[in-house]
């Protein structure tokens, strides 16, 4: 596995040290992925709105859990033991347990989740704080701050 050196970015950027951890984690996750189970989509559904959809056919809502910790959304499926004794001629539907993790960018919040037709959809929205939104600064004739300091 190759490593990426981001040190040139740190010379002119402040607060992006989390980026190296995210890239490293993503590269490890791709190499350790458990066969891509369950399959999923990540979709842009509007400005600053996203959806993650996982194919979880065969799982009941109470067998699924969603958790967010330190900017990581973790979705788990734990199949309960089948109390019925069954005899299969062919068993091709996999009901194995799974865990999927998604790194969320700063200010991305989970807005809800729904289960429909064997698909679990998680709604996400990036909520930009007022302090980070662009604002117009009027140009005046003087700055009180500079005048107070004798400039």
TrEMBL record:
Recorded family membership: Belongs to the small heat shock protein (HSP20) family.
Gene3D superfamilies referenced in this protein's UniProt entry, alphabetically: 2.60.40.790
Domain SHSP span(s) in chain numbering: 31-142
Gene coding for it: ibpA
Keywords: Stress response
CDD domains: ACD_IbpA-B_like
Pfam families referenced in this protein's UniProt entry, alphabetically: HSP20
The UniProt record lists the keyword DNA-binding: no
Descriptive protein name: Small heat shock protein IbpA
The UniProt record lists the keyword Methyltransferase: no
InterPro entries cross-referenced by the UniProt entry: A-crystallin/Hsp20_dom (IPR002068), ACD_IbpA/B (IPR037913), HSP20-like_chaperone (IPR008978)
Record PROSITE patterns: SHSP
